Amino acid sequence: MVPQFLFATGIENSNPTIQGGKIRQDELEKCGHYKHWRTDFDLVEELGIRFLRYGPPIYTTFLSQGKYDWSFADETFQDLRKRNIIPIVDLCHFGLPDWIGNFQNPDFPTLFADYARAFAQRFPWVQLYTPINEMYICAEFSALYGWWNEQLRSDVAFVTALKHIVKANVLAMSAILEVRADAIFIQSESSEYFHAENPAAIKPAELMNAKRFLSLDLNYGRRVDSEMYEYLMDNGMTREEYHFFLGHNLKQYCIMGNDYYQTNEHRVSDDGSTQASGEVFGYHVITRQYHDRYRLPVMHTETNLWQGPQGNEAVNWLWKEWANVLRVRNDGVPMVGFTWYSLTDQVDWDTALRENNGNVNPMGLCDLDRKIRPVGMAYKQLIQDWQQVLPAHSVCLQVPIVMPNESGQPWAQKKQADARQARQHATNTVVKTNQPDA
Polar residues composition bias: which ranges (predicted)? Predict the structure, then answer.
């Protein structure tokens, strides 16, 4: 089976809390997915999309330690399997169940790994995962900017959230691999860049450009830069915690997902304050920076733009992002997928979910009446034009993706068995290498 290029969309399942935990910003509810999920899946098929970033709401599914309510997931994932739509399962998207609290909770990593394992056991036909979405942004908005969840504003709180989130992601990957040895993990992380406004701003911009890599450095077991090591140690990370990440490198199972919006580039002033710069370098330049650092296959995992008064603003942005994807690919980077995020318009992202205003943001392939927008028709055409021309070329996807309706086939079962044996061999080799000499 020839590997596919992953043309994808997503169904927004953010659910952080605001106002001290009093309000849950559940985008699945705000966007009407609980009511219209069958229609939403119909739209995915109508647009010719085979890959869907999607996941159950963690706060209503993970009820307590070892206790789960799979009712909604059972219904929706059974339907996705029947339609042969491949989910990229988004298990945690900016929020946690009330009983866990927030990302300052040191028990969160092991609890989340249990949840990930339980999901994989219940849906063993699922192969692709984003265990935790935008780990850096989640920690930043929750514990540095004070917008969501714990609503803290300190470097210590940020480092605490970050180390718990990334550890949870690593443990979840390990737990899923115990169940599905050929699982592939697509990190969806915001790709940022900070531009110095003047010479005095060079130093703070350099620090921010180092800091943007922290979540992926830890996740991929890469040694952080020296200034970032001091930053982590000065703000509560222990040497033992740091070495956990160095010793749990699952990079070989990963695709690096880069999210890029107009808001991802920033102008930095000499006092360290920032403002949005709009698109300066663009996806091509910034993604090359990330690829040069991690040397992994890449997927463009999120982008969108509001449909403005002309009606073609989002269509033009789609064309521009796709041109950037082709440029990155032509430069020799193994690009394996592209995503317009999300399927439908979103609600209250104009305030980054900090306010519960009910404002509809016209950035979806479809509006909230489930009518396809011009960008949806343009994306459908783009997929039709390119899907046969553009087979993926990456080391990670040499072993083909198993379609949902093929998961029970003998060749697919053998593929999993071979992957399980290879993983066991690699684990035994690491254990033997780390044993002290007699």
Answer: 425-438
